[in-house]
Design brief:
214 residues; mainly alpha; 2 domains; two-stranded antiparallel ribbon
Length: 214
C-alpha cells in the first residue's frame, strides 16, 4: 500500500514539475539565475544587439516589442562585470571601421550607434533635470542644449520614464551636436561613476499599444 502511494506521489510530482518548470523558465525566473553573470564578448553582444530596434527616424514611435527587447538586453548588460563590458563596447564599435579609424564609421555603424545610445539610457537611472556643465560623448546632444555651467540638462534624453513606462521624446534625425562619433564605452564609464543602474523590474508597458506615447 505504501509503495503504491509513494509511486503515485512521485508521478504527481513529476507531472507538476513538467507543468510548472516551463512556466517559470518562460517568465525568466530560471534564466535570470542561470545567467546572473553571463559570459560576454563582442560576438555575443553583437548577437544581442540584433534584437534591438533602431532609433526611429524622425519619429517617436517605438513599438512595445522594441521596448521589451531593449529592456532585455539592458538587463543582461547590467549583470556583466564592468571591465568586461567596457572592452565589449570598445570592440563592438571599432569592428568594421575604415582603416581601423574609430571615427570612420559606416552608415550601418551610425545606425547601431543610435541603438547603443538608447540602450545606455535604459541601463542607467539618469536625471531629467541636472544642473551643471553639459558633458557630451559625440554625435547627439539634446536640441537646444545650454552649455553654461549652471544650466539644467536632461541627461536621459531622448528617453523619458513615467512610472516605469518609457517613451521617446525625439526621433533620430542624424547628427545632433558634436561632429564626432558617439563613444559608448566612454559614456558607460562616465555613467558608472555617477549614476545607479536602473531598476528594470519596475518596467511595464501597455501590451495593447505599439507607440511610445502612453
Amino acid at each position: 500500500m505504501k509503495d503504491t502511494i509513494l509511486k503515485c506521489n512521485v508521478k504527481l510530482l513529476a507531472r507538476l514539475l513538467y507543468l510548472v518548470v516551463p512556466c517559470l523558465a518562460g517568465c525568466g525566473l530560471f534564466r535570470d539565475v542561470e545567467s546572473a553573470r553571463p559570459n560576454m564578448d563582442e560576438s555575443t553582444f553583437r548577437r544581442l544587439m540584433t534584437r534591438v530596434d533602431p532609433w526611429p527616424s524622425h519619429s517617436t514611435n517605438y513599438s512595445w516589442d522594441g521596448w521589451l527587447r531593449l529592456v532585455s538586453v539592458a538587463k543582461t548588460i547590467q549583470r556583466v562585470p564592468h571591465p568586461v563590458m567596457e572592452r565589449v563596447f570598445y570592440e563592438y564599435q571599432r569592428k568594421g571601421c575604415a582603416r581601423g579609424d574609430f571615427q570612420l564609421e559606416s552608415p550601418e555603424q551610425l545606425i547601431s550607434d543610435g541603438e547603443l545610445f538608447l540602450l545606455m539610457r535604459m541601463v542607467f537611472e539618469l536625471p531629467e533635470a541636472q544642473i551643471g556643465p553639459w558633458v557630451t560623448f559625440g554625435k547627439w546632444d539634446m536640441p537646444g542644449v545650454n552649455f553654461s555651467p549652471d544650466a539644467v540638462h536632461n541627461i536621459a534624453w531622448p528617453v523619458r520614464w513615467d512610472h516605469g513606462h518609457p517613451r521617446l521624446e525625439s526621433g533620430y534625425v542624424g547628427i545632433e551636436g558634436v561632429n564626432a562619433r558617439y563613444n559608448a564605452r566612454d559614456e558607460y564609464v562616465y555613467f558608472l561613476k555617477r549614476y545607479a543602474m536602473r531598476d528594470l523590474s519596475l518596467f511595464h508597458f501597455d501590451c495593447g499599444t505599439n507607440s511610445s506615447t502612453p
